[in-house]
Design brief:
Strand order of the largest sheet: 2-1-3-4-5
Number of helices: 19
Shape: elongated
Radius of gyration: 31 Å
CATH topology of the largest domain: Rossmann fold
Distance between the termini: 53 Å
Number of domains: 4
Length: about 450
C-alpha cells in the first residue's frame, strides 16, 4: 500500500510541487496551507507521515509538531524551513520531529527522508503488533501465534476447557503440550483444584505405579506410612499424564480400570478409593501404530481419546516462527539486561528456513543462546547455532540429467515414503494419511523395502 503523506506549507506553490513530485514516486499526498486545517485533516484521515514548514502564520511548525507528538505520537513529522540553522534543527528535534530538511527542498532528499520515516513508522507498528500478540498469548497460556493453525488450536482449547471429558493432546516434542494442558485446567470449572503432572517415561514401572495409585502402610520396605497417589492428590482438579505412549505395558490395564471405575486401589490395600479428577494425557508417539505393533492397549486408547487435540509443529505455523523469535529475543534481552533490540534480515531468513525438529522449545533455546553470545544490538547469523546457520533444506532426488542417475519407480516410491516418515518423525498413521494409503498398505510397502535392503 502506498505511503500516505500530509504536506503542510503556507505557500500553495510549494504544496502543489510536492504533491505532484511525490505522486510520481508513488506517495499518496494531500496538502494544506494552514497548520490548523492540517490538524483537522489529520484527525479524520490516516497518514503515515507529516511534512510541515516551520515558518507559518498562526500555529507555527514547532507548535504544530508538538501537537502531533502529543496527540498522534505514532506519526513521524519531518520539518522544513528556509531559515535553516543548527538551533532551529535542535528546536525541531526537541519538539519531537523525526527529521529536518532545509529549503529550497530537493525532491530526491525529501523522498529519501519520507521513505525512512515510513519505514520507521511501520517497524514501530510491527513491534506494537508483536507485543499486543504477546500479551494476548500470555492470556492464552503462552500459546503464541497468529497462524490459522494456532487460531484453530486456541478456539478448540476454549471448547475443550468448558467440557469435563478426558483429553488426548498429541504433537511433536516441544510443541507445548503441557502448556495446553495447563490452559485447559485454568479455564475449566476445576481451576480452583490442583493440577498434578507426571511423565510416564520418567520412572520405572514399580515407582510409576506407586506414584499414580499410592500405597498403604507396609506395602513395601520403607513404606512406614500410607501415601495417596496422584489420582487422589488431584481430586477436584486435573491429572496430566505426559508421554502416555511410554507408559509401561504392565500398568496399562490398571490405568484403564481406574479410569473406568473412577477409583484406584493403593499398593498393599484391598480397598479401592474413589477419586474425582479430569484426566489429560499427551504423547508425541503415534498410538495407533503402537496399538498395531502391540505396545499400547486399544481399550486404553479409546478411553483417553475422548477429545483429541493436535498441536501443529512449528514448521507448519508460517509467520509464527518469527513472531516467537522476536518475543523470546525481547524476553532474554530484558532478563540479561543486554541492549539487543532485533535481528538482521539474514537471521530471520535462516530461522525461517530451518525445520525446527525440537519445535518451540528448540527455538527458545536457540534465541537464549544467541542473545547470550551476541555483542551487537542486532542478532547476526554468527550468533546462531551451527545447525541453524548451515542448514540446507533437503530435497527428494527423483532423477538427474545424467541417465546413470535415473532410478526405478520402486526406488522413487521408497525414497518418498522415507522422506515423508522423516518429516512426521516416524508417525505412520500421519504418513499414511499424507501418502493417501491405508496403514496396512504402508506397512506392506515398508516391509518390502526392508526385505530389499532399503
Amino acid at each position: 500500500m502506498a505511503a500516505r503523506v500530509l504536506f503542510v506549507d503556507d505557500e500553495r506553490e510549494v504544496c502543489e510541487w510536492a504533491a505532484e513530485g511525490l505522486g510520481r514516486r508513488g506517495l499518496a499526498t494531500q496538502w494544506r496551507t494552514s497548520a490548523t486545517e492540517a490538524l483537522q485533516l489529520l484527525e479524520t484521515g490516516g497518514f503515515d507521515v507529516v511534512v510541515a514548514d516551520l515558518n507559518m502564520p498562526g500555529l507555527n511548525g514547532l507548535e504544530f509538531c508538538e501537537r502531533i507528538v502529543a496527540n498522534r505520537p505514532e506519526v513521524p513529522v519531518i520539518v522544513i524551513t528556509a531559515f535553516g540553522s543548527l538551533d532551529t534543527a535542535v528546536a525541531a528535534i526537541r519538539a519531537g520531529a523525526y527529521d529536518f530538511l532545509s529549503k529550497p527542498l530537493e525532491l530526491e532528499a525529501l523522498v529519501i527522508a519520507l521513505e525512512r520515516a515510513v519505514q520507521t513508522r511501520r517497524l514501530r507498528d510491527e513491534v506494537k503488533h508483536l507485543r499486543r500478540a504477546g500479551d494476548e498469548a500470555d492470556e492464552a497460556g503462552g500459546l503464541l501465534g497468529e497462524s490459522s493453525a494456532m487460531q484453530a488450536v486456541r478456539l478448540m482449547l476454549g471448547r475443550v476447557a468448558a467440557a469435563d471429558a478426558t483429553v488426548l493432546i498429541t504433537g511433536e516434542t516441544g510443541t507445548g503440550k503441557e502448556v495446553a494442558a495447563r490452559l485447559i485446567h485454568e479455564r475449566s470449572a476445576r481451576k480452583l483444584g490442583p493440577f498434578m503432572a507426571i511423565s510416564c517415561a520418567a520412572l520405572p514401572e514399580a515407582l510409576m505405579e506407586a506414584e499414580l495409585f499410592g500405597h498403604a502402610k507396609g506395602a513395601f520396605t520403607d513404606a512406614k506410612t500410607s501415601r495417596p497417589g496422584l489420582f487422589h492428590q488431584a481430586t477436584g482438579g486435573t491429572l496430566f499424564l505426559d508421554e502416555i505412549g511410554d507408559l509401561p505395558p504392565g500398568l496399562q490395564p490398571r490405568l484403564l480400570r481406574a479410569l473406568e471405575q473412577r477409583a484406584a486401589r493403593p499398593l498393599g490395600s484391598n480397598t479401592e478409593v474413589p477419586f474425582d479428577v479430569r484426566l489429560i494425557a499427551a504423547t508425541n508417539r503415534d498410538l495407533e501404530t503402537a496399538i498395531a505393533e502391540g505396545h499400547f492397549r486399544e481399550e486404553l486408547y479409546y478411553r483417553i481419546n475422548v477429545i483429541h487435540l493436535e498441536l501443529p509443529p512449528l514448521r507448519a505455523r508460517g509467520g509464527d516462527m518469527v513472531l516467537l523469535a522476536q518475543r523470546f529475543l525481547e524476553e532474554f534481552a530484558a532478563r540479561s539486561k543486554k541492549p539487543v533490540k532485533g535481528m538482521s534480515a539474514a537471521v530471520a531468513e535462516r530461522l525461517s528456513a530451518y525445520e525446527w525438529p525440537g519445535n518451540v522449545r528448540e527455538l527458545r533455546n536457540c534465541l537464549e543462546r544467541a542473545v547470550a553470545l551476541t555483542q551487537d544490538e542486532e542478532l547476526t547469523v554468527e550468533d546462531l547455532p551451527e545447525r541453524v546457520r548451515a542448514y540446507r533444506s533437503s530435497h527428494l532426488l527423483v532423477a538427474g540429467q545424467d541417465p546413470r542417475e535415473l532410478v526405478t519407480l520402486e526406488e522413487v516410491e521408497r525414497r518418498y515414503i522415507a522422506r515423508v516418515l522423516q518429516s512426521v518423525q516416524g508417525n505412520k498413521t500421519l504418513a499414511a494419511r499424507i501418502l493417501g494409503l491405508d496403514r496396512a498398505t504402508l506397512y506392506r510397502k515398508l516391509g518390502r523395502a526392508s526385505s530389499n535392503g532399503g
